[in-house]
Each structure stands twice: as C-alpha cells, then as structure tokens.
Amino acid sequence: KKMISSSIRLLRQSNVRSLQSNARLISRATVSGQLTNLNQFRSMHSWTGPLSEQNLAQQLNEQQAASSNELIPWFLKNMPQSYFRQIGEKTRLSHLKALSALHGAGADLTLTLKSSSADQKEQTLTLIRPNKLGLLHDLMQQFPSLTPQEIKSASSYVSFDGKIVLSIFFLKTSAPRESFSHPELSELAARVQAGEFANDPLYPAPSRHFTPNALEETLKVVEPRHVHSAGERRFLKQLELYHKVLGTEGVE
User: What phi and psi values does residue 174 have, to the nearest 5 degrees?
Assistant: First the structure.
C-alpha cells in the first residue's frame, strides 16, 4: 500500500511539472507567434515603423487612390451621356466616391445615399444596386415612402455593361416654393410674341401663355432645374404642347 501511495504521489507530481512545462512552452510559442504575425502584417503593408494613425492614413489613402484609378475609367466609359448631362457635378462626385469605396472594399455595389440641398428645399435619394429584373418593384417595396405624392421627379441610369442601376429620386419637402426669375426665358418669350420666329417650326407660335404674367405663374409651379436643363426654346415648346393637350385626352 505504501508503494502504491508513493507511486501515485510521484505520478501526480510528475503530471504537475509536465503541465507547468507545457504551459511555459505554449506561452512562449504564443508570444512568438504574435510577434511573427505582427511582423508579417507590417511586411505585407510595407510598414517599417510602429502602427500609428499616420501609417494607417497613408495606407488607406493609397488603397483609395488605387481603387479610384481603376473605377474612374470604367465610370466614364459605362455611364450614359444623359447621366452626365442631367446630373450635377456635386451629385456625380458623391456617386463616384461611394462607388470607389465599395469597389476598394470588394463589396457588392449596393448603397443608399440621401442628401439635402444647402437651402433644405430639395432632398435627393440615390439608390445604387446591381442590375436585375424587377429592380424597380423591389425598390418600391424597400422604400414605401417613395410614393407619387412624395416624389417630384426620378431618373434611372443603367451602366452600358449592365452591372449597376443608379436610381435618383428628387423628393418633396415641406419648404414653401418661391417664384424664381429667368431673364433669358422672358426675353425669348417676348421675341416669340413679337413674331420673330413665325416661320420656324422649332419655335412655338405666339400665345397668351407666354406673356410676362403668365410665365411668372408658370415658374411658380415648375422646377428651376427642369427649366435650366431643358433650355429656353425647348421649355417654351413644351409649354405650348402642354397647353394644347391640357383638359383633353389627346397627345402629340
């Protein structure tokens, strides 16, 4: 019995020493592995100094620059000309920045951007999604607030390679509408009224809707953005066509 008891005691002491030795080996291996991983991480990212905000900022800037250099040629090549003609530079830049961030992260090109104009009179909702059948229906389901009563206008642009659809919704706000003046439009309307373009089919015929008072009332309910993008001649032609079919079921 004494021999058995002594053997058990020796075995327990041996196990304790073995466990202590293994723990020291594991601790040294863990520290060594951590140092190795850190050195590998620094080597992969060309960091020779300590991890710092400056190093991280430099690496991030380099990655963003590389992503932009890849994305910008694709963006210019694949977005339709109507997009560059109808969407302002500031909005286009925000789209490009968002796409560049997604591209650099290797993420799906899915993003929602919402912005307001400086005077808070216009809100813009931009939805960037991969192109697929039934996309518009899905968007309406995801954003139930996008009702005809809330949307002033909307545009959708599909990249030429079919990868993305960029949908832009201009939303109504509670800010009261103020009338705006358009001297060039008023000047052209006066020339039309004087019969200067009587034989030119590209221009509308003189009309009571082109008088200064009538134009002022029209500009109270029309988006300034539409007048500027359409141009003076085209806007007056559209106004003429509008009044021709107003109150009827006819179209031209």
Answer: -85, -5
CB 130 within 8 A of CB 62: no
Instruction: Please say whether the beta carbons of 215 and 185 come within 8 A.
Output: yes
Q: 10 Å Cβ neighbour count for 157? A: 18
Q: Whole-angstrom Cα distance, residue 55 to residue 117?
A: 36
Per-residue pLDDT of the chain in tens (252 residues, 90 and over written 9): 444 444 445 445 555 455 455 555 444 544 445 445 555 545 555 554 556 777 777 777 777 777 778 888 888 999 999 999 888 888 888 888 888 888 777 777 788 888 776 565 667 888 888 888 777 767 767 776 666 657 777 888 999 998 888 888 887 765 555 556 788 899 999 999 999 999 899 999 999 999 999 998 888 878 787 888 888 999 999 999 988 888 776 655
- Residue 21, φ and ψ in degrees, nearest 5: -65, -45
Question: What is the per-residue DSSP string for 82-146?
Answer: HHHHHS-HHHHHHHHHHHHHHHHHT--S-EEEEEE-TTSS-EEEEEEEE--TTHHHHHHHH-TT-
Answer whether 134's CB lies under 8 Å from 84's CB: no
> What is the Cα 221 distance to its own chain's centre?
28
Q: Is the pTM of this model over 0.90?
A: no
